[in-house]
Amino acid sequence: MTQKSSGGAEKTSFSEERIAAYATIIGKEELEELFQLGELVRATKVQQINSARRGGGVAEMLRSLIPFERGLGLDVSWEVISAGPEFFTYTKTLHNFLQGKPKVPDLVGTKIYWDTNRRNYGLIRKDADVLFIHDPQPAGLIKFASTEELQHQRWIWRCHIHLSHEYHFVLDFMRTLIEDYDLAIFSTGKFLPPWDVRTTIMLPYIDPLSEKNRELPPEQVPEICWEHGLDDLEKKPLITLVSRFDPFKGQEYAIEAFKLVRKEVPCQLLMVGGTAGDDPENEAIFAQLQERVKDLPDAHLLNLPPDSHVEINAFQRAASIILQPSLKEGFGLTVSEGMWKEKPVIGGDIGGIPGQITDGYNGFLVSPSEKGIEEMAQRIKYLLLNPYFATEMGKRGKEAVKERFLITRGVRDELRLIKNLRKTII
Ligand code: UDP
Fold it and tell me: Domains plus CATH for the chain?
């Protein structure tokens, strides 16, 4: 159940029974540990701040995390900064630079960045003990905290993007911000920057009981595919790629690999994406992809609203193979989502993806470049022609996600961190 409070913050209730349902997946003992940890940190007031309520991986995780932690008795709230389009154009430029791809820098944007962060400072709960600030967009909030506030609050920056080390002037901008934080969290050790701030690694997670990942009634999957114009899945096995329309997600490589496969094996490709409130590139990249597939039979391109969770779930379940050929990737929740659904996932060998896929065992890794096109085509053909192997690979994928990438592990990591931070709060 979801309701809006007058302050715009989303209040979500999540009963203890709902949490108990996770025991069927992870076992009673692990869940018991979460309740015990919850008891220990109940008195701590926690706030999470990001830049989009819907769309993209951070919103996906917070949507499940907040009610879960509340169900454990925590006093945790989630706020989203409000900003105009110029702010998001600037922060997407910053995001692209940080991931190693320059866009035309917008100098005026720096002023908008600071004005917006200053304006949003009022979102910070004065009584918060621990603040998790996600990604670069709201990272500037810390600069408006008083010395006294910084003394009694712990500020954590959680970085979900692929932090490349190419552009020093952009990294320096982030460094001067992040060095004020008590801790910076990254999704893999590969991204750790040489900054003067304590760092740690925490893996992202998916929620197996969310609309995105829960089991669906078997008849609903083909129904949703049919409603969206897909062909008979028996005749043309489906290859699915779920991603925002973004320069790093690799849709253009997927199209080229699909062209090679389709010459030899009947199949269909679905690239589905949607908007995120903090990503202004959706329309332009969607238009470029439309142009690329307009004369390509069996290629489907869908731009859906960001809350199309059941549809995405169905497209992942309908797939014989899932692709995520990213060029840069902070983590790539879509990889774990596909693996959880027992699908063989072919992912770019970059960023957080190899942390999820063990090449040849529970998925395939391909070069995150043009070289990856031929590699991807080979692997797709192999999987389509060897369904037994694909099924086994998918089963192993689910096991890997169960062990390492479920929300229950994510909550445990966060509660342990909060417990340790409490000792340092004055
Ligand atoms: N997603 C979605 N609709 C879309 C595209 C993506 O619901 O049209 C979801 C996807 O299922 C995943 C999240 O958004 O849960 C994307 O997270 P990921 O870490 O893969 O990438 P990000 O968008 O954060 O770079």
Answer: 16-205+406-422 (3.40.50.2000), 220-404 (3.40.50.2000)
